[in-house]
Amino acid sequence: MIKKLLLTCLISTLLFAEQNTYTKEQLEKMIGKMVMLGFHGQKIDSDDKIYNDIKKYDLGGVILFDKDPNDKKKIKNVKDPKQLATLSSQLQAINKSKLLISIDQEGGIVQRLKESKGFINTPKASVVATKGENYAKNTYSKLAKVLKNSGLNVNYAPVVDLSINPNNPVIVKLGRSFGKSSKEVIKYASIFTKEMKKENIISVLKHFPGHGSSQSDSHKGFVDITKSWQKEELEPYKYFIKNALVDMIMSAHVVNKDLDYSLPATLSWNINTKLLRKELGYKGVLISDDLQMYAISKHYSLDDTVKLAINSGVDMLMFANQLAKPIKLETIIDSIYKQVRSGEIKMHRIKEANRRIDVLKNKL
C-alpha cells in the first residue's frame, strides 16, 4: 500500500515537473500550433486579429470559406483567384514557421472555390467515379494546380466514406462518396491524393471511422451509427496507412457504441488511439472535424471538448467559426492551458501532437 502511494506521488511529481519545464508563453505557442481556426477577412494587415493570432501564438493553421455564415450574400474569405492568392501570401508571410492554409474543395456541392468566382468547377465524387480513372486523374490534376496557385496547402478531401446508406443525407445523397465498395473508393481516392501530392497539397481523408452509413447529419446534432456501421468502412484507412499514402485524417462526430459506448469518435480514446493508432498503425496528424458542429457543441462544454479530444489522440482542433458564435483563439488556448497545468490534459499529448504537426509542416 505504501509502495503504491509512493509510486503515485512520484508519478504526480514527474508530471508536474514536465508541465513546468515550459514557460507560459512556450506552452501557449505549443497549444496554438494545435488549432485550425476560421476567421473573417479578405485581406490581412498587422492590425487584424488573425495576424496577432499567428504572430503571437504560432497558430497552426487557418480554414478559409467563401461565404459569410451569417449573411451568405457577403464574402468571408474568398472573392476571386487573384484576391485569394494575395490573402494566402499575406497569411504565410506573418510567421517564419509554415502556416497550414486549408479549405474544403471536394467537388460538387462542397466547393469553396466556385466557378462563378473565376475558379474551375470540379464534379462531385459520385460523378467522377462513373467516368473512369483517366477522367479522375485529369480532373484532380486541374484541381490541385488551382489550389497550388491559390497558395493553399491543405485540402479536406477526399471523402473515403462508403455509400452504404442510400438515405444518408450528408454524404451519399450529396454525391460526396466515390461508391459503395471500399475497392472503388480506394481507387478514386488514391488518384485524388496522388494528384494533390504532385502539387504539394496535403490531402485529408475523412470522416474516420466512417460516416457513409449514418441516418443523420452531425452538423445538426447527435449521430448514432451503431446499428448501421460496417467494418468495411475501415478498409480505405487500412490501405492508405499501410501504403504510407496519408498525412492527415479527419475524425467524425459519430457515435458507435460497439467501439465506444458513450463518446463520439472525435472525443474517443478507444477510436482515435486504440483503433486508429494502435490497431491500424496510423502515425500522422489527426484533425477533428469542426468542433462547433452541433453533434459536439450542443452536448459538451468547451473545456470538456478540448480535454476529451486531445486526450483521445486528436492533434489539431478545428474551430471553423461558421456554425456558431465566433470563438477567440485566446479562449481556446486558455482552456487548454489551465487543464494542462492541472493535469487534466496530458502534457505528453501536447508534445506528441506538436511533433506530428512539425513533421507534417516539414513536408511542405
TrEMBL record:
This is beta-N-acetylhexosaminidase. PANTHER family: BETA-HEXOSAMINIDASE, BETA-HEXOSAMINIDASE-RELATED. SUPFAM superfamilies: (Trans)glycosidases. Belongs to the glycosyl hydrolase 3 family. It catalyses: Hydrolysis of terminal non-reducing N-acetyl-D-hexosamine residues in N-acetyl-beta-D-hexosaminides. Pfam families: Glyco_hydro_3. Its EC number is 3.2.1.52. One of its GO terms (biological process) is peptidoglycan turnover. Residues 1-17 form the signal peptide. InterPro entries: GH, Glyco_hydro_3_N, Glyco_hydro_3_N_sf, NagZ_Beta-hexosaminidase. Keywords: Glycosidase, Hydrolase, Signal. It is an enzyme of class 3 (hydrolase). It comes from the Bacteria. Transmembrane segments: none annotated. One of its GO terms (molecular function) is beta-N-acetylhexosaminidase activity. The keyword Endoplasmic reticulum does not apply. It comes from Poseidonibacter ostreae.
